[in-house]
Design brief:
By secondary structure, the chain is of the alpha/beta class. It has helices spanning 16-31, 48-53, 79-84, 95-100, 105-117, 130-134, 138-150, 155-158, 179-197, 199-204, 215-222, 239-246; strands at residues 5-9, 38-42, 59-62, 89-92, 121-126, 162-165, 207-210, 229-232. An 8-stranded parallel beta barrel has the order 1-2-3-4-5-6-7-8, surrounded by 5 helices. Helix 1 (16-31) runs parallel beside helix 12. The model has no long low-confidence stretch (mean pLDDT 97).
C-alpha cells in the first residue's frame, strides 16, 4: 500500500533555535500518535543537522539541492552532502523555486537524477498558475511538468519519487483547492503515470496535495482516494496546526 505522508515545508522561516524547538514539539506530538501518516519536516539547510538530532519518528527533508554534483558552485548544497547528513527527502521544483530562481523542468531533471543517485527521495512539486486554470489548461500544464522533469526515469527510479500537486494559486493565499479539484488532478496524475509506467507503479506513488492546507480542510482533502497526504507551508510553522493536519487521516 502506498505511503501516507504529511510534510511541513518551513520555507525561509525560523531561526536555528526556533527551528529546533519547533522540531522537538512536532516530534513529541507525532510520536504520541499511533500509525497513520509518515510525518516529515523540511527546515532551511542551516537547520538540518541540528533538527535531525531531535527527530526519531519524524523524517527530515531539505527544501532544495544543487543541479551539479560538486565543485565551484558558490552557495549551493549537493545531494551527496544532504545524504551524508542523514537527510531522507528533498523537495524539488517548488513553485517558489520555479518562479523566483528560474528553475526549469530541465534543471529539475538533473536535480532529480542527483537526488535519486544519492539515495534521497525527491518530493517533486508540480502545479498550474491561476491563468492556466482559468483557461482550462491545468491538466496539460501538469502533464508537461511531469514529462519534462521525470519521464526520462526508469520505472524502478520513478517508484522512488513522491509527487506533490500544488496549484500555485492556492499556495500561501488562503484559497484551497476544493476537494473535487484536488481529486480530479490527483486522479489525472495517477492516470498519466499509469500510461507511462504501468498501473502497478502508478498505484504505489504517493501524491500529496499542497496549497493552504489547514487542520480544518485536511480531512476532506485526505479523504479522496488519490490524495495521499499533504505538503504544508504556513500551517507547518506551528506544531499544533501541523499535527492537527496529520491527525486528519
Ligand atoms: P501553504 O504552502 O500551505 O502556505 O499554502 C504550501 C507549500 O508551498 O508547500
Amino acid at each position: 500500500m502506498r505511503k501516507k505522508i504529511v510534510a511541513g515545508n518551513w520555507k525561509m522561516n525560523k531561526t536555528l533555535q526556533e527551528g529546533v524547538a519547533l522540531a522537538q514539539t512536532v516530534e513529541q506530538m507525532a510520536s504520541a500518535l499511533s500509525g497513520g501518516a509518515q510525518v516529515v519536516v523540511a527546515p532551511p539547510f542551516l537547520h538540518l543537522t541540528e533538527v535531525k538530532k531531535v527527530l526519531k519518528t519524524v523524517s527530515i527533508a531539505a527544501q532544495n539541492c544543487a543541479a551539479e554534483s560538486s565543485g565551484a558552485y558558490t552557495g549551493e548544497v549537493s545531494a551527496a552532502m544532504l545524504k551524508s547528513a542523514g537527510i531522507e527527502y528533498v523537495i524539488l521544483g517548488h513553485s517558489e523555486r520555479r518562479a523566483y530562481y528560474g528553475e526549469t523542468d530541465a534543471i529539475l531533471a538533473k536535480k532529480v537524477d542527483l537526488a535519486l543517485a544519492n539515495g534521497l527521495t525527491p518530493i517533486f512539486c508540480c502545479g498550474e498558475v491561476l491563468s492556466e486554470r482559468e483557461q482550462n489548461l491545468h491538466l496539460g500544464v501538469v502533464k508537461t511538468q511531469l514529462a519534462d522533469a521525470l519521464f526520462h526515469l526508469s520505472a524502478e527510479q520513478f517508484s522512488r519519487i513522491v509527487i506533490a500537486y500544488e496549484p500555485v494559486w492556492a499556495i500561501g493565499t488562503g484559497v484551497t483547492a476544493t476537494s473535487d479539484q484536488a481529486q480530479e488532478m490527483h486522479h489525472y496524475i495517477r492516470g498519466v503515470l499509469a500510461e507511462k509506467y504501468g498501473a502497478a507503479v502508478a498505484n504505489e506513488i504517493s501524491i500529496l496535495y499542497g496549497g493552504s492546507c489547514k487542520p480544518s480542510n485536511a480531512g476532506e482533502l485526505f479523504a479522496n482516494p488519490d490524495v495521499d497526504g499533504g505538503l504544508i507551508g504556513g500551517a507547518s510553522l506551528e506544531a499544533g496546526d501541523f499535527i492537527g493536519i496529520v491527525k486528519a487521516f
